[in-house]
Amino acid sequence: MEVFAVHGGLFAVAFAAATILPAQSEAALAVFLVTGSFSPATLVFVASMGNVLGAPANWGLGRGIERLRDSLVSLRPATLNRATNWYCRYRRWSLLLSWMPIIGGPLTMVAGVMREPLWSFVALAKVSRYLLVAGAVLSLT
After folding, report:
1. Measured distance CA(37)–CA(53) in Å, rounded
2. What are the tens digits of pLDDT across the range 25-50?
3. Cα distance between residue 54 and residue 17, in whole Å
4. Is the pLDDT assigned to residue 76 strictly greater than 70?
5. Number of H helices, E strands in the chain
6. What pLDDT does residue 71 have?
7. Distance CA 15, CA 130 (A)
8. What is the C-alpha separation between 23 and 107, in angstroms, rounded?
9. How far apart are the C-alpha atoms of 13 and 23, rounded to whole Å?
10. How does DSSP classify residue 100?
11. Which pTM value belongs to this model?
């Protein structure tokens, strides 16, 4: 039961972290890795799958934002234009920063606006972050 709760909780936090909701899945992964009670490979897989499955929410929102622009009170045209221009400068490599608080969610939305292919979005923005976190945490323990 504990394994299901840990993996289910990690999956849910990683899923939420893939959206514009504030969630720190990297911290949850690090905590579970430090305990040493669970397989690191399984934890990275569960976090990655949660984040990968949650990713299409922001990506899809970005893809449809032009239609929603008038109904979104907090989205100003200048904000979207600034984010789009920044994304054009760094292209898909900016997705390596999608894990960062505050800017990560908007970055993934702009990836949808810019029609970034879902496969590269998932590979750069989702799986790489957990491999880096796991490597860092396991090297310290």
Report:
1. 25
2. 889 999 999 998 999 999 999 998 99
3. 8
4. no
5. 8, 0
6. 54
7. 13
8. 15
9. 6
10. S
11. 0.67
Domain ranges for the chain, please list them.
Answer: 2-140
The residues near 109 (Cβ < 8 Å, ≥ 6 apart) are 20, 58, 59, 61, 62, 65, 83
The residue that leads in pLDDT, 106 or 14, is: 14
Residues for the chain: how many in total?
141
- The residue among 99, 101, 115, 109 whose CA lies nearest residue 75 is 109
Q: Three-state SS string across 1-52, please?
A: CHHHHHHHHHHHHHHHHCCCCCCCHHHHHHHHHHHCCCCHHHHHHHHHHHHH
Average pLDDT, integer, range 96-108 = 72
Residue with tokens 């990655």: 48
